[in-house]
Amino acid sequence: MNREQRNSEDEQLWAVWMTKAQNGDVSDYSRLLEQLGTAIEQYIRARFGEIDALEDCVQECLISIHEARHTYDPNRLFRPWMFTIVRHKTIDNLRKRQTWLNMKENLSNTFESITDNEQLQKKIDGVRILNRLSPVHREVVMLAKYGGYTTAEAAQVIGISEIATKGRLHRAMQTILQTLEQEDLLI
Amino acid sequence: MNRQRDQLIADLVSETTPIKRTGSTLLNISIWLACSSVFSFAVMLWVGPFRDDAIEHAMHHPQLFIEILLGVATIISLAYAGFKSAIPSPENRLGKGFLLPMTLLGLWLAMQFIAFMHPAMAPTMEGKRDHCWLEALTYGIPGLIFGTVWLHRLWPLKPGWSGFFLGLSAGAVPAVMMQLSCMYEPKHNLLFHTLPGLLLGVMGAIVGLIFLRKK
Question: Hey, of B6, B11, B21, B215, which one would you mutate to test binding to chain A, going by the most A CBs within 10 A of its CB?
Fold first, then answer.
């Protein structure tokens, strides 16, 4: 079977399964998502190469397809609808990841520029304390305190409201303060 | 397959219930346009009357008729682009689905500039409204809000563009109506009726970026 035939078969099958899923059919939906997972993985590999966090990307695409399933019109083709979401989500993901990598690079540059031992120790303590934070708290602290992002920008990167970001940052800073007090590191 | 992915699929499937499809884009636009137009028309009529001979003017002056017709076509095509862009499709890439509305908008604006040199009819102060620019700006806002709530239920992948087209369309509705209700003078028309409508496009883009973004 050549590729075109396979695509055409997939198209028909997936369209039917998605239509059934829209009507609440669970078993076909499960099969659909499983097949889509594999197809999305192949698509990302073919279009974007072997990227880091490929699995995260595939899973985010599946979530987006799930959330956007009400916009699929059975009178139209399924594959173009699906791959538009996948393409958009993957680019979005890569962009966010690039921002994160840039930030990490900035941070490592900061470490490299330190020559004084005491200063270095302080930085190491900082990293140790950061590692004790929960991932969500660590993320917001990294963005707002190390990355130089404003709370509005950090909120955009994380994908939550600015108020929620401020609250999260406040709680994270309180946790850091408590840890510093416990370890007698507060100056 | 990956265990995490299996778990995710199981979670997604477990929360699956029958859902209501978004319906046809044309139906969505028709309802939205009808609501926006009726609202603008009703409030405009409530605030002040339309020009007595507005329809007659439009019928007897082809240039004015074409200008109004282009305005209406622009409103419809912009609304179509806005709603269409909120449904995932490869047709929504810039340059494809957006060419027609932008061309019509350009033609509509060009007609208004041409009227500077060749007015469609003799300028008249008849029907002059005191705060027409404010009316043109504010009457489109409810349409923009209503449309934003509607688009939020869809899946806009380019929220800024979706909001931009929706805002332009919402703003163009009172702008076109002003051509029939307020005084006729080409410069006044462009500055006090059309420009506020275009501003709503900018407002729509901002609103879209804030409220239509999918996490």
Answer: B21
Residues B75, B176 contacting (CB under 8 angstroms): yes
Nearest to B12 among A66, A70, A83 (CB): A66
Q: Could you tell me which of B137, B129, B130 has the C-alpha nearest to residue B180?
A: B129
Nearest to B42 by CA among B212, B177, B213, B169: B177
- Among A residues 154-173, those touching chain B with beta carbons less than 8 Å apart: 159-160
Q: 0.80 cut: is pTM over it?
A: no
Of chain B, the end-to-end C-alpha distance in Å amounts to 26
> Which among B155, B161, B206, B215 is the top mutation candidate for probing chain A, defined by the most A β-carbons within 10 Å of its own β-carbon?
B155
Considering only CA atoms, which of A68, A64, A165, A179 is closest in space to residue A132? A179
Q: What is the Cα–Cα distance from A61 to B138, expressed in whole angstroms?
A: 39
* Contact of B92 with B25, CB cutoff 8 Å: no
Chain B residue with minimum CA distance to A24: B18
Q: Tell me, what amino acid is at B167?
A: G
DSSP string, A90-139: HHHHHHHHHHHHHHHHHHHHHHHT---HHHHHHHHHHHHHHHHS-HHHHH
- The helix (H) or strand (E) run that includes residue B89 is none
Rounded Cα distance between A85 and B212, Å, is 15
Q: In this structure, are residues B197 and B171 in contact, taking their beta carbons and an 8 Å threshold?
A: yes
- Residue carrying the six token digits 């970001």: A165
Q: What is the ipTM of this complex?
A: 0.79
CB A72 within 8 A of CB A81: yes
Q: What is the pLDDT along chain B (215 residues), one digit of tens a residue?
A: 577 788 889 988 988 889 988 888 899 999 999 999 999 999 999 988 888 887 888 888 899 999 999 999 999 999 999 999 999 988 766 666 788 999 999 999 999 999 998 888 888 888 788 888 999 999 999 999 999 999 999 999 889 999 999 999 999 999 999 988 888 899 999 999 999 999 999 999 999 999 998 76
